[in-house]
Specification:
Elements: E1 4-5, E2 10-12, E3 15-17, E4 22-23, E5 27-28, E6 33-35, E7 38-41, E8 46-49, H1 57-67, E9 75-77, H2 83-86, H3 89-95, E10 100-103, H4 105-115, E11 122-124, E12 130-134, E13 136-142, E14 152-156, E15 161-165, H5 188-200, H6 204-214, E16 221-224, H7 234-245, E17 250-257, H8 263-277, E18 283-287, H9 293-302, E19 303-313, E20 316-317, H10 319-330, E21 337-344, H11 350-360, E22 367-372, H12 377-395
Parallel strand pairs: 8-9, 9-10, 10-11, 15-16, 17-18, 17-19, 19-21, 21-22
Antiparallel strand pairs: 1-2, 2-7, 3-6, 4-5, 7-8, 12-13, 13-14, 14-15, 19-20
The protein binds MU-OXO-diiron.
């Protein structure tokens, strides 16, 4: 049981998942994840806002049953169709066939495709449509691609509550508290950077459009589908989303390198040390063979400087660095201060390939070096020069 009043008419009825190792079978969940679901209780009708992942339906129903006799819900609003929220819909409909599912045109198509739910079970809404529940009402904003094409947000004007879907969500289960002012929430912020960059990161422009729609709406609570309900920290989470979706990096440098026998790694350490001498304080170093890609992507998104190093491997880029660069291309990462360092034993390829990738991303490295075999004195100097040029560019 995990129920909490947020306001007099709005209840948290979501669940925690501390068992899944990875979100989307890709992204580690060291602190678990919550699938947030909310109940809005009007004087005439009751709406459930988003469901939960399929295997947690029983817990969801148990929570709902604490508030509503026989789980008698009138509407299920689907702000987002990804199965971490929609997986439970089929079971809910099997048990309660009179529930009307509320979604937009794209949602309805997905409901058919994923769960073979026909339109007679659904209510299609459009931008700014309102459904009254009696004393409270649900207003809908279509906000596509904040994460999937059907994503939308639901606003309860009378309570000044925004149900934002994935937007403003983060990894990390809810450990007792639900609203940010009833628990220590600082540790969720790194998990929000990771959630944004891993899951939503490709969709900077749609996120910007969504943020613009929210500009003139009075919001006391943001209820997203993952992580805490935001009340006291709303400005902070909105600023974070604004910064990340504009690809505005924070002061700092991420160094991502691959290294088979430590020679390329040595350059990474020299670069980091010089960056520190030059006054850079946030320096994150990732050995791509060891750090999970999820955390590398998160830091690469978060900080303004990005330095990538790769040995040449089979006449190509080091495989895991190739994977990282593909992740950056998929997310159309931009506006970084970039530098690259490569190495080779008999024929150079990695450095050129990294720079070609940066060109595709429309970013020109401020410095690049290529090292033959092990570092020489001149390589040490070249590595320091990389750090100097990155530091200079970050300070300008
Ligand atoms: Fe929480 Fe895009 O799913």
């Amino acid at each position: 049981m995990n129920i909490r009043n947020i306001t007099e008419r709005v209840f948290y009825v979501g669940v925690n998942d501390r068992s899944s190792a990875k979100f989307e079978n890709l992204w580690p969940l060291p602190f678990g994840v919550s699938y947030n679901s909310y109940l809005v209780k009007g004087s005439e009708k009751i709406a459930l806002i988003d469901a939960v992942e399929e295997s947690f339906v029983r817990r969801l129903l148990s929570n709902v049953g604490e508030i509503v006799e026989n789980c008698k819900i009138d509407y299920l609003v689907v702000n987002h169709m990804e199965p971490d929220h929609s997986g439970g819909i089929s079971t809910l409909l099997d048990l309660f066939p009179n529930i009307k599912i509320v979604g937009n045109k794209v949602t309805l198509g997905m409901l058919k495709g994923f769960y073979n739910i026909s339109e007679e079970h659904c209510i299609e809404i459009k931008e700014n449509d309102v459904i009254s529940l009696g004393e409270v009402s649900l207003k809908f904003f279509i906000t596509p691609l904040v994460h999937w094409p059907e994503t939308m947000m639901t606003y309860v004007e009378e309570e000044r509550i925004l149900f934002s879907g994935d937007a403003f969500g983060c990894f990390g289960a809810l450990n007792g508290g639900i609203v940010d002012n009833e628990m220590e929430v600082d540790w969720y912020f790194p998990e929000m950077y990771r959630y944004y960059s891993n899951i939503v990161g490709r969709f900077g422009k749609p996120v910007q459009l969504a943020l613009k729609k929210l500009e003139n709406i009075k919001i006391d609570y943001i209820c997203s589908t993952h992580g805490p309900v935001w009340k006291d920290r709303i400005k902070e989470v909105k600023d974070l989303y604004n910064r990340m979706s504009l690809y505005e990096g924070e002061e700092g440098v991420t160094i991502v390198y691959g290294s088979m026998y430590g020679n390329t790694e040595e350059l990474a350490d020299i670069i980091a040390s010089r960056l520190c001498e030059r006054g850079i304080r946030n320096i994150k170093i990732h050995n791509v063979s060891k750090s999970d890609m999820s955390y590398i992507i998160s830091d690469a998104f978060r900080y303004k400087g990005l330095i990538v190093g790769s040995p040449t491997y089979n006449g190509h880029i080091f495989p895991a660095i190739g994977e990282f660069l593909t992740s950056m291309e998929v997310r159309e990462i931009k506006n970084k201060v970039i530098a690259t360092f490569g190495s080779f034993t008999w024929a150079s390829a990695a450095c050129k390939m990294m720079n070609e990738c940066m060109a595709r991303l429309k970013m020109a490295p401020v410095a690049s070096m290529d090292m033959k075999q092990a570092p020489s004195k001149s390589d040490y100097e070249a590595a320091k020069e990389i750090a100097d040029k990155v530091a200079d560019a970050l300070k300008n």
